Amino acid sequence: MSRELSNAEIDWCALAAHEVNRAFCQAMGDNSHVAWEQVPDDLKVVARQSVLAIATRETTNKQLHDDWVALKKLQGWTFGQTKDAKKKEHPCLVAWEQLPFEQQVKDDLWISTVKSLLAAFWRIPRQ
């Protein structure tokens, strides 16, 4: 990168990737994801950190998932059969290989969205 990403650029990438993922989930019948403006601050921190990881190193969907799992565990989340924010339980707190295909696609969409925006900001070449 020729210069550091601004906070605004990081926020735009996180917002866009979140909304792409939310739209994908809605298309799959999952309406549990709220609009970016309603996302709790701790989840926005995770989103911004993933943007920075993608911007600063070659990140695979497995690495992105592993990073997400580690951050969620630091925030006190544990595995649960269903997502429950009050109990801090999530069914995706498993190894990458155990994720349902749809969840793996979400990570692919996240990375693609962030890379596309970074390319638009002239940070990385389009692939």
Walkthrough of the structure:
This protein has 127 residues and is mainly α. It has one domain. Helix content is 56%, strand content 3%. The chain has 4 helices and 2 strands. The protein has a two-stranded parallel sheet with strand order 1-2. Helix 1 crosses helix 2 and helix 3 crosses helix 4. The two termini are 16 Å apart. The model has no long low-confidence stretch (mean pLDDT 89).
Blueprint of the fold:
Layout: H1 7-27, H2 41-56, H3 61-74, E1 78-79, E2 89-90, H4 101-120
Parallel strand pairs: 1-2
Helix pairs in contact: 1-2, 1-4, 2-3, 3-4
Summarize the model shown.
The protein has helices spanning 7-27, 41-56, 61-74, 101-120; strands spanning 78-79, 89-90. The chain has four helices and two strands; from the N terminus they run αααββα.
Which features does this protein show?
2 strands, two-stranded parallel ribbon, 127 residues, globular, mainly alpha, single chain
- Please work out how many helical segments DSSP would assign: 4
State the helicity in percent bands. 55-70%
Report the sheet-strand fraction: under 5%
Span of the ends, CA to CA: 16 Å
Strand/helix succession: HHHEEH
Indicate the overall shape. globular
Mean pLDDT across every amino acid position: 89
- By secondary-structure content and strand pairing, the structural class works out as mainly alpha
> How are the strands of the biggest sheet laid out side by side?
1-2
